Amino acid sequence: MKAKKENKVYTITETEKKRYLDTGYDIYNDDGELIEHSPLKKITVAEHEKEISALREENAALKAQLAEKEKPAKEKAKAGE
Question: Is 4 exposed, middle or buried (0-12, 13-18, 19+ CB in 10 A)?
């Protein structure tokens, strides 16, 4: 597993994980997937709101796509009645 912080990357063991988390490192598996964020990592309210807004927009777009895909199925069901 790897510990990453800014431009520093260290290969660590499971026993070292907590120490690196406590010093601000994020932990990744050997495939590069995030396992755990450091508890010291903080984001601003503005960053949080920006993320929430983007997620809401994405959610609305996905709901619209789903509604469009469900239209033909509903029309077929009505025609078959």
Answer: middle
User: Which residue in 46, 44, 38, 43 sits closest to 4, CA to CA?
Assistant: 38
The answer for 17, left when phi > 0, alpha when psi is -120 to 50, beta otherwise, is alpha
What pairs with residue 2 in β-bridges? 11, 28
Share of the chain above pLDDT 90, in %: 65
| Segment 12-33, tens digit of pLDDT | 999 999 999 999 999 999 999 9
Beta bridge partners of 10: 3
- Nearest CA among 23, 48, 50, 60 for reference residue 38: 23
